[in-house]
Amino acid sequence: MNVLVDTSVWSLALRRTARHLNPIEQAQVAELAELIDEGRAKILGIVRQELLSGIKTPSQFARLQEVLRSFPDEPLSTADFESAASLGNQCRTNGLAVSVVDMLICSVAQSRNWAIFSADPDFKRYASVLSISLYTFRK
Predict the structure, then answer these.
(1) In terms of Cα–Cα distance, which of 121, 129, 138 is closest to 89?
(2) 62 lies in some domain
(3) Residue 52 to residue 30: CA distance in whole angstroms
(4) pTM, whole model, 2 decimals?
(5) How far is it, in rounded angstroms, from Cα 83 to Cα 26?
(6) The domain spanning residue 61 has which CATH number?
(7) pLDDT digits (tens, 9 = 90+) for 39-88
(8) Quick check: 9 and 27 in contact, CB under 8 A?
(9) How far apart are CA 91 and CA 85, in angstroms?
């Protein structure tokens, strides 16, 4: 099964240094590396944009941009965006605050039967309301 990787996990691997990661974060980064090796890690363009936003220097931006170019963006359709809005409405009806990016991730994962790999606890809350699968890393 493919795994849609959230910004939080990519950021641990690509924007933080290993010495600043706690043991759980180190395990998440190792798991991402395995998913990449297996060809199962997927990314959305909006996640790419989040990762590249806020980079301090042009040289850091260029390095990260080059690394990310190894991962093609998952193509999105109108249905993905409409579903994201519907999922967001469903969460809000159940008292959960959402972000449009998170709902797009949920929508794409749900429609493709992929798991979501995230270090963001919000996705656990979404999973209590939505029919999404959260990736549990093997470590």
Answers:
(1) 129
(2) yes
(3) 21
(4) 0.94
(5) 33
(6) 3.40.50.1010
(7) 999 999 999 999 999 899 999 999 999 999 999 999 999 999 999 999 99
(8) no
(9) 10
